[in-house]
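In the design runs reported in the main text, the only information available to the sequence generator was the tokenized backbone. The following block is the verbatim input for one such run; it is reproduced so that readers can re-run the procedure and compare outputs position by position.
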């Protein structure tokens, strides 16, 4: 599968900032790629009553596609220190 993103968003999060649960718009493409930088974060995935956490260490690369991208809400718990994320979409 050859998949090239057409846009990148750079986000800066300060101590205690978070991302609330959401599913990215379908227009964002089949695959969402996130590069997590500077500090660690906890990403939470939720679908109905199911939930699981993924620890994102600095320099971690995450790709969401298929059901995890389209059916599961994801969020970031309040960060402990400044964090950057680069989000690649198509």
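Verbatim output:
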């Amino acid at each position: 599968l050859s998949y090239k993103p057409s846009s990148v968003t750079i986000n800066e999060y300060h101590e205690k900032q978070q991302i609330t649960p959401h599913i990215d718009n379908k227009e964002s493409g089949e695959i969402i790629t996130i590069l997590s930088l500077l500090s660690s974060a906890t990403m939470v995935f939720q679908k109905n009553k199911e939930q699981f956490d993924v620890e994102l260490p600095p320099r971690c690369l995450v790709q969401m596609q298929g059901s995890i991208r389209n059916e599961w809400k994801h969020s970031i718990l309040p960060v402990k220190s400044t964090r950057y994320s680069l989000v690649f979409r198509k």
